[in-house]
Amino acid sequence: MANVVIVGTQWGDEGKGKVVDLYAENADVVVRFQGGNNAGHTLVVKGEQTILHLIPSGILHDNKVCIIGNGVVVDPAVLLGEIDDLRARGLFPPNTRLLVSEKAHIIMPYHRRLDAARENRRGGKKIGTTGRGIGPAYEDKVARCGVRLIDLFDEGVLREKIAANLEEKNFLLTRYFGEEPVDAEEVFAEYREYGKRLKPFAADTSLALAREVRRGSRILFEGAQGSHLDVDHGTYPFVTSSNTVSANAACGAGIGPAAIHNVIGIVKAYTTRVGGGPFVTELTDAVGDHIQRVGREFGATTGRRRRCGWLDMVLVRHAIRVSGINALAITKLDVLTGLERLRICTAYENDQGERFTLAVPSQVEALAACRPVYEEIEGWTEDISQARRLEELPKNCRRYLELIANLADTELALVSVGAGRHETIVLRNPFSG
Ligand code: GDP
Ligand code: IMO
Ligand code: MG
C-alpha cells in the first residue's frame, strides 16, 4: 500500500484534476497542500463538468476524507461558494467529509487589492497573476502577520489582526498606489460571518492525517500549479508564491516525508502557459492556434487564453528531478490527433553554443535566450478517444509515448485520451507498491 503525490511537470493545467478524480476511486483521503484558488482543476464525470479551485478533486466520490492542508491559502468566500455550489448540484456526498486546516492562512480583501495594484504598477513586466491575492497572502504568512482560519473564530484576535494589517496595507494602498483604503470594520464583519460558516470544517488536519496513516488509509496528495511555477524551482519571478514540488506535500499537510511513497508527474502531451514568462517551445503560428482550439486551452480560473507549444522534455526532466517523480501520466494526447508531424524539444541551445538538457537555466533572461532543439516524428489521424489499452493506439501514437518515456527515462502510469474520468488508459496502480 502506498501514498501518492500528484504534481504538474509544466506550468500548470496539465490535467491534474482529472487524474486525481480518477485515482480518488482507489484512495481514502485526498489532500490539497499548497496554492489557493489560483488553481482551477477540471473534472468531467458522466459528461458533467465541475471546476474546483480549493476543494480537493476527490470530493465527487462517496466515503472519502478531503483535506485542505495548512499549506493552502484559503479565500473563504470562494470555499463557501464551492461548497454551496456542489451541494446545490447534489455533488457533495453526505458521507464524504471536508476538513480545512485551522492553520491555513486566509486570503483577505487587501491581498486581492495589493495583488492587482502591484500588477498594474509592473506595466509591461507583469507576472500575469490570477489576481486572487495569492502572493500577498503568502507574503503575510512569512512576515508573520497573516490571519489564519482559527483566528476567524476569535472576535478579539480577528479585529486586532485586521486593524494591525490595515494600518500598513492602507498606507501602501493610499500613499504608494494612490488608491482607496480598505475599511477595517467591513472586513471584520464579513470575515466573522465566514468564520461562523467555516467552523464545522475546521480541524487540526495534521492530527487527522496521522490517524489515517496509522489506520493504513490510502492517501492521495493533489498538487496545484506545476513544477515550473514553484517559487524556488520554477522560472522565477514568473512563478506562483508557493512550493509546488512533491516535497511540500509533507510540509503543507503536516506529515513526515516518509509517508509519501510514489510521485506521479502529470505531463500534458504538449506545453501550455498562462501569464507571462519565457516559453521556449511556444508556437505563435497556426499549429499553436490549432492546439489551443482543439485542446480548449482557456484558463479554468481566469478564462485567459493559454499560450501553447510543443512538448518540452527539458522542463519535464527538471520536474522529474526536483519532485522525485517515479512515473508519468500523459494527458490530452487526443488533442494532437490530426497533426501531420509532431515535435518534442529534447534540449535548449543558446548563441554561446551552450546546450541544456537536464535543467532549465536558473536565470529567466538566460532561459529567454534559449532556442529549442527538436526531434520530429510522424503524427496520426485516427480517433484515439475510445482507446483503453495501449495496443488500441495507432503505431505513431505509441511511438510518441515511447519517445516521451525514453527521453524522460521514466515509466508511464497512465495515458489520458479525453476529459472524461474513464477516457483513460491505466497502465499501473499508483497505490500498489
Ligand atoms: P489542472 O489544473 O491540471 O487540473 O488542469 P485544468 O483542469 O486547468 O486543464 C485541463 C483541461 O483539459 C480541462 O478542461 C480538462 O477537462 C481537460 N482534459 C484533461 N485531460 C484531458 C484529455 O486527456 N483530453 C482532453 N481532450 N481534455 C482533457
Ligand atoms: P492549476 O492548479 C496555470 C500562474 C498565473 C501566473 C503565475 C502567478 O490549475 O494548474 P498567482 O496568481 O499564483 O500569483 O500567479 O502562476 N498560475 C497558474 N497557471 N495553472 C494554475 O493552477 C496556476 N496558478 C497560478 O497564471 O502566471
Ligand atoms: Mg488548471
Descriptive notes:
The longest helix has 22 residues, at 155-176. The chain has a ten-stranded mixed β-sheet, sandwiched between helices. The protein is 32% helix and 20% strand. It has 433 residues and is of the alpha/beta class. Helix 3 crosses helix 4 (134-143), helix 3 (109-122) runs parallel beside helix 5 (155-176) and helix 5 crosses helix 6. The chain has three domains: 4-103 and 201-263, Adenylosuccinate Synthetase, subunit A, domain 1 (Adenylosuccinate Synthetase, Chain A, domain 1); 105-198, Adenylosuccinate Synthetase, subunit A, domain 2, CATH 1.10.300; 267-432, Adenylosuccinate Synthetase, subunit A, domain 3 (Adenylosuccinate Synthetase, Chain A, domain 3), CATH 3.90.170. The termini are close together. It contains twelve helices and 20 strands. Strand 3 and strand 4 (48-52) form a beta hairpin. 6-O-phosphoryl inosine monophosphate is lined by residues 8, 11-13, 38-41, 127-130, 132, 134-135, 224-226, 229, 240-241, 274-275, 300.
